[in-house]
Specification:
Layout (H helix, E strand, L loop, with lengths): L1 H17 L1 H38 L6 H47 L8 H13 L3 H29 L1 H9 L2 H36 L4 H6 L3 H53 L5 H42 L20 E9 L9 E9 L3 E5 L6 H8 L7 E6 L2 E2 L5 H5 L2 E4 L10 H6 L9 H10 L3 H5 L8 E2 L6 E2 L3 H14 L4 E5 L7 H9 L1 H4 L4 E5 L11 E6 L2 E6 L1 H7 L2 H11 L3
Parallel strand pairs: 3-10, 3-11, 6-9, 7-8, 9-10
Antiparallel strand pairs: 1-2, 1-4, 4-5, 11-12
Helix pairs in contact: 1-3, 1-5, 1-10, 2-3, 2-5, 2-10, 4-7, 4-10, 5-6, 5-10, 6-10, 7-9, 7-10, 9-10, 14-16, 19-20
């Protein structure tokens, strides 16, 4: 319970931080709403008694009219407070949702990239994203609802005490099974949903395969629609069948508890009816006690439901804070060093790295020196560790052993964000942003001013300037297929934009991972013919399987099975007749 109270405090802090004004107004309106039902019931009692007196004594309606007006006014205030409360809660909810998404997104972009290698991270992320936007607000609403219900319940219980103490006891006792039921099934539902997170993600994945743009072509070409529909139905029905089974059991138990509530209401009606007939109670008192008991049943249900919901919130909010509490390991280790520009080069010293869940290292004892201004080519078969090495050099990952140094200083002592500014990368699986063409390039250096001349120069170097100029709105044309008045490109054209984005960054180190895999022969030839001019003043790392393009490199590093097999210039490696010679001659022989 202590841990849940701590979580409640943290959640309420989030609510307050997101919208203190709206939260205050919400509390005030909720407290006021607690008193309206009591006033309304009391006025109805007075109204009925006045009507009864007027009927029996043949009096006028002069004293009735003010009571009628008072009842209508209180009823109106009760109704308008409910509408106002909804408006206030909605505003507060919107502010909180925005604030929570900001926290989630900020955390997600800060967390280490290695998290995406853990299936458990996706489960944690999925639960946090589904719960974070509204759970803290739910905690506040349930606390307010509980206290409002307690206040109203005390007022209604006070009315019933004037009838008989047993009526108050009856009101409370018959609702105890309900709170037990809510708490019991809160645990069951939470554990069920937690266990079902992987299956839920699987269902969402099959849904994406059936509805997403990227898989749509193969789905149709290979006739996979019915197959994935069946997989979706199997996964969906598996989780929903268990959920419905839990709900069925809870509904049956709720029906039994509702029967006891109905019997308690019957008992009260019999007592009140008998005392009214015998003249102990007036008609107004009879109506007041019946309404008070009925309202009391409603309020005690609200209180117990709020307690049960708070317990449930305490279970689920833990997932949110669990995600927000994940630690980043790729940080600046003290004493922190501020990088002062690339002066000599980057050195990887006996670097090893193993992906989570793998027994075999992806890189093992790799040592490599990259001098300032050099063009280095990384070659080797798939799975040799080329892309992994790039992720280590850019400090997206930290090595399991060994170290990487920038100008002789360990990069782990540098702030990752500041260090990464020294790199510009075209990844093999580069991003396609459904934004304007100019924005797609400018994302390479989003902090820079909108310097159109530099942007166009990057586009020209990548061979895409003419294409973008001929678009309907030039560089302002929205790319992709998601939005209206947009224009899609071929994969090769997208790759040119990705290259332009990397060049626009103007970082001292340029890394190109298969930069020409989708380019046409003319564009590829033109880019590599001018490659030294394009990267002039920068250190370049080129990863490619097209060995004809690496002959321009100052040094070629051959990776195989996670280790450096050999290193040297094209001529040196060809004379050595080792692994590079073997790969190059095999590839060249296809064009002879």
């Amino acid at each position: 319970m202590k841990s849940k109270i701590k979580l409640f405090r943290k959640a309420l802090d989030l609510v307050w931080q997101s919208a203190p004004g709206w939260a205050t107004v919400n509390i005030i309106i909720s407290v006021l709403q607690s008193f309206f039902p009591l006033v309304l019931i009391w006025l109805i009692k007075l109204l009925i008694d006045e009507i009864t007196a007027a009927v029996t004594s043949g009096g006028t309606a002069e004293r009735i009219i003010p009571l009628v007006i008072a009842v209508v006014v209180i009823y109106f205030l009760d109704e308008i407070s409910s509408a106002s409360a909804f408006y206030v809660r909605r505003n507060q909810s919107v502010r909180l949702e925005e604030y929570m998404y900001e926290l989630l997104h900020a955390k997600a972009v800060r967390l280490d990239l290695i998290n995406f290698e853990h299936p458990g991270y996706y489960d944690s992320l999925s639960r946090a994203v589904s719960e974070a936007p509204w759970r803290p607000n739910s905690i506040l609403d349930n606390i307010i609802s509980m206290f409002r219900g307690v206040i109203s319940l005390i007022l209604m219980a006070g009315i019933l005490l004037s009838l008989h103490w047993g009526a108050t006891v009856l009101l409370i006792v018959v609702n105890i099974p309900g709170i037990w039921l809510r708490l019991h099934y809160a645990d069951i539902i939470y554990n069920f949903q937690k266990e079902q997170t992987p299956e839920t993600r699987k269902t969402a994945y099959f849904n994406w395969l059936l509805t997403g743009d990227r898989p749509s072509r193969e789905i149709r070409l290979f006739g996979l629609g019915d197959y994935f529909i069946s997989l979706f139905k199997k996964s969906y029905n598996k989780q929903k069948a268990e959920e419905l089974n839990i709900l069925r059991k809870r509904t049956l138990i709720e029906a039994v508890t509702d029967l006891f509530k109905a019997l308690s209401f019957l008992i009260l009606l019999l007592i009140v009816a008998r005392q009214t007939v015998s003249g102990v109670l007036t008609l107004g008192q009879m109506a007041m006690f019946i309404l008070a008991f009925r309202q009391g049943m409603s309020y005690i249900k609200d209180v117990f439901n709020s307690v049960g919901s708070l317990y449930e919130d305490g279970l689920f909010i833990g997932d949110v804070f669990g995600f927000l509490g994940l630690k980043e390991s790729v940080t600046a280790f003290p004493p922190v060093i501020t990088p002062a520009g690339l002066k000599s080069g980057i050195v990887a010293d006996r670097v090893s790295f193993t992906y989570p869940g793998n027994q075999k290292p992806s890189l093992e004892n790799v040592s490599l020196e990259i001098k300032k201004g050099e063009i280095i080519a990384l070659v080797g078969p798939n799975g040799a560790g080329k892309s992994t090495l790039v992720r280590l050099l850019t400090r997206l990952y930290d090595p399991g052993s060994g170290n990487i140094r920038l100008d002789g200083q360990d990069i782990r002592a540098m702030d990752p964000q500041e260090y990464r500014k020294y790199f510009s990368v075209v990844f093999q699986d580069f991003m396609l942003y459904n934004l304007s063409a100019g924005e797609n390039i400018r994302l390479g250096n989003i902090e820079s001013a909108k310097d159109l001349s530099s942007l166009r120069q990057a586009a020209r170097s990548a061979g895409v300037d003419e294409l973008l100029n001929n678009l309907p709105k030039g560089y302002d044309t929205v790319m992709g297929t998601l939005f209206d008045e947009s224009r899609d490109l071929s994969w090769g054209e997208w790759q040119k934009i990705a290259l332009a984005r990397a060049l626009f960054r103007e970082a001292p180190v340029l890394i190109l991972d298969e930069p020409s895999s989708s380019l046409d022969a003319d564009t590829e030839y033109e880019i590599f013919r001018r490659f030294r001019d394009i990267v002039r003043g920068r250190t370049a790392i080129l990863i490619t399987h097209r060995l004809s393009n690496v002959t321009l490199a100052d040094r070629i590093v051959v990776l195989e099975n996670g280790s450096v097999a050999e290193s040297g210039s094209h001529d040196e490696l060809m004379k050595k007749q080792g692994r590079y010679y073997e790969m190059y001659t095999k590839q060249s022989s296809r064009f002879v």
